[in-house]
Design brief:
The complex is a heterodimer of chains A (112) and B (114). Chain A is mainly beta. Chain A has strands spanning 4-6, 9-13, 18-24, 29-37, 43-50, 55-58, 61-66, 71-76, 85-93, 100-102, 106-111. Chain B starts with a strand and ends with a strand. Classes of the chains: A mainly beta (112), B mainly beta (114). The interface between A and B is medium-sized, with 22 and 23 residues.
Chain lengths: 112, 114
């Protein structure tokens, strides 16, 4: 079955790195995603990783995927106050057009 | 980049009335769109998958007659909340897949039923 879990809250000081963790149970995940949601807004795709990759880097964002442990992480370097938001990891399984299963979201608070 | 436009962003309606929410793909065609519901401080729950030219696929526990979905063109899907009640108050978000990888989300609709 599908189950995606995240920790609820992360507090980080401005300028430090943030690491948000996510675990999933379905080993047939095809793509894994990180989305950012600011208050009252929709979801913004930050990055995604294909399941046969271990790492993906995009500017301040680094995604690590440990398929053996079914563990996904998002590292934000030099965290800024504008990074304060809720971050969701999500997985999709199978071909394009399949639904996303979301984790519960991690609320990140960046303190100046 | 690909944009999904959702309208309205906020709506307040009286109990018993119906509300229509539109989801448009602005610069790409979407044969499939997804409708999610988000409760306060909670994750997104997939309600249904909207298919252009055919019936929507509803997730278990979602009432088809309550949440009517129409996907009449390759760029527009609508969700109608019929006979709305206060428990239907929520944040509704649509999404579509402009390529084979990422999902683009609309900005959401906050529905308040009074």
């Amino acid at each position: 079955g599908e189950d995606v879990e995240q920790s609820l809250f992360l507090s980080v000081r401005e300028g430090d790195s943030s690491v948000i963790n996510c675990t999933y149970t379905d080993s047939s995940s095809t793509y894994l995603y990180w989305y950012k949601q600011e208050p009252g807004a929709g979801l913004q795709l930050l990055t995604y990783i294909f399941s046969n990759m271990d790492m993906k880097q995009d500017q301040r964002l680094t995604v690590l995927l440990n398929k053996k442990d079914k563990h996904l992480s998002l590292r934000i370097a030099d965290t800024q106050t504008g990074d304060s938001a809720i971050y969701f990891c999500a997985e999709s399984i199978g071909a394009a057009g399949n639904k996303l299963t979301f984790g519960g979201g991690t609320r990140v608070l960046v303190k100046p | 980049g690909a944009v999904v436009s959702q309208h309205p962003s906020r709506v307040i309606c009286k109990s018993g009335t119906s509300v229509k929410i539109e989801c448009r793909s602005l610069d790409f065609q979407a044969t499939t769109m997804f409708w999610y519901r988000q409760f306060p401080k909670k994750s997104l729950m997939l309600m249904a998958t909207s298919n252009e030219g055919s019936k929507a696929t509803y997730e278990q526990g979602v009432e088809k007659d309550k949440f009517l979905i129409n996907h009449a063109s390759l760029t527009l899907s609508t969700l109608t909340v019929t006979s709305a009640h206060p428990e239907d108050s929520s944040f509704y978000i649509c999404s579509a897949q402009p390529d084979g990888y990422g999902y683009t989300f609309g900005s959401g609709t906050r529905l308040t039923v009074v």
